Amino acid sequence: MPTYFSESRCVELSLLDHLDTNLAIDWPGTTVVKTFKQAYSSTINLPIVAVRLADTSTTRLEVGSTTFDNRYLLIIDIFAKSDGMRLDMADYIKTKLKDSWVNYTYSRASGSTTELGRIANGRDTVTDFVTDARIDFGDQVDTKDRFRQSISIRIRHKDA
């Protein structure tokens, strides 16, 4: 019997999948990761895109309703090779996010620790581009942080 992941986890994984699929085609050699530990690994080279769910905002769908309207704040960090690449990748990613993407319900088979199953379950849509800014750590900085950009988006999931 499979174990199904929470909606929050599925939102994060669906965005990772969407970016990984598109970047593999249009920006070959880009690695998409979920954690900073992976991004700073000595075995992964630039460019890198890291995606993480930072916050969930929950309100009632309407007065008296027991249905919640969740909005998710996701942060996308770009670790680029140059200033030009940083800007181009940020614009590219925003373009790929503006039209929504497929949300999947992910599950793991009982006993499996690596293989994930997935079923399409609606769409995720950006409701707000919160930030799109260069991260400046100063002159003495790790190579991976030299040309870094952070994009934060608020999204809404709608079931199929």
Describe the protein in words.
With 160 residues, this protein is an alpha+beta fold. The chain has a single domain, classed as 2-Layer Sandwich (STM4215-like). 24% of the residues lie in helices and 43% in strands. The protein has a 7-stranded mixed sheet with strand order 1-5-6-7-4-3-2. Strand 5 and strand 6 form a beta hairpin.
Task: Give the overall silhouette.
Answer: globular
The CATH C-level class name: Alpha Beta
| Total count of strands | 7
Please state the second-level CATH architecture.
Answer: 2-Layer Sandwich
| Biggest sheet descriptor | 7 strands, mixed
What's the number of helices?
Answer: 3
First and last CA, distance: 23 Å
Order of helices and strands: EHEHEEHEEE
User: Percent helix among the residues?
Assistant: 10-25%
Q: The CATH topology is what? A: STM4215-like
The CATH homologous superfamily name equals Phage tail protein-like
Specify the structural class: alpha+beta
Give the percentage of residues in beta strands. 35-45%
